[in-house]
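Fill in residues.
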């Protein structure tokens, strides 16, 4: 939720404009589980001061809908919405929404085109992170192996003995030794 509020603020405030031009923002999450565990159908959060409980007034509101608690909703329209999202039950109150969802699914069968860009970026980030981790491990192993080989040379081990201890070829060992000679 924090990320989305930040993104909204960055997008809504042009460079050089004063902060008081920030608009109120709402981040809404629809969950099929009870995020807070208290059984409420709706959780609403505003930023408050810890000491006195007063609202800070930063204009940020977070709303989490817990569709699994649809039966506890007081408002009939909200109850119908949450029930539809939870069970796909179409009541009179949810009929228009159900029709729009059906039309949307016909146009976008994968169900998440609006998030495709973000999902693709996340996948690339994960791949890059894994690739970087593997590269770091490889570099670490190479450095450790080079240190072992050079230490073994300083202690008077023969190239053949070092090769048998490190599973490197004689050529690889000679190349390492040559790379550190002045």
């Amino acid at each position: 939720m924090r990320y989305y509020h930040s993104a909204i603020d960055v997008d809504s405030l042009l460079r050089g404009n004063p902060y008081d031009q920030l608009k109120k923002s709402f981040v809404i999450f629809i969950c099929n589980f009870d995020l807070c565990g208290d059984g409420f159908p709706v959780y609403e959060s505003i930023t408050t001061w810890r000491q006195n409980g007063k609202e800070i007034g930063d204009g940020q509101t977070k709303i989490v809908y817990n569709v699994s608690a649809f039966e506890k909703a007081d408002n009939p329209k909200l109850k119908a919405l949450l029930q539809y999202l939870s069970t796909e039950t179409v009541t009179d109150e949810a009929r228009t929404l159900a029709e729009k969802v059906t039309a949307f699914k016909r146009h976008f069968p994968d169900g998440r085109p609006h998030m495709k860009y973000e999902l693709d970026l996340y996948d690339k980030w994960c791949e890059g992170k894994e690739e970087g981790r593997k590269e770091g491990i490889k570099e670490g192993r190479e450095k450790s192996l080079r240190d072992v080989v050079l230490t073994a040379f300083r202690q008077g081990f023969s190239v053949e003995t070092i090769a048998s201890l490190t599973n490197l070829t004689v050529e690889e060992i000679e190349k390492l030794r040559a790379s550190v000679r002045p």
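Strands lie at 25-31, 42-46, 60-66.
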